[in-house]
Amino acid sequence: MADLTRQEVIKILATTEKARLAGVDLSGLDLSGLNFANTDLTRANLTKANLSNAYMRGARIEYANLEGTLLVGANLKEANLKGANLNNADMTNANLKDAMLYSASLHGARLNSNDFQR
Which of 59, 88, 97, 113 is most buried, by the most CB atoms less than 10 A from its CB? Predict the structure, then answer.
C-alpha cells in the first residue's frame, strides 16, 4: 500500500521546488498529469502507478521500480532513469529525449521509436 495519497503528493510538489520522494512507496496511485520536474524519486516504488501525461523533466528516478507503470505521454526529457525497473511499463508517446536509461530494465515495455526524438 502506498505511503502517501495523491493529495499528499500534490501538496509536497506544490510546496517544494525540488521535492524529495526518494524511497517512498507510491505504488498503484493515480499521479497522472502531476509536475514532478526535478523531483528526487530515487528508489521509489511506482509499481502500477498511473503517471500518464506527468511532467517529469529532469527528475531523478534512479533504481526506482516502475514495473507495469503507465507513462503514456509523460515528459521524461532529461530524466535520470539509471537502473530503473521499467519492465512492462507503457511508455507510448512519452518524451525520452536525453533521458538516461543506463542499466534500466525495459523487458516488455511499450515504446514508440519517436519517443527519443522530441
Answer: 59
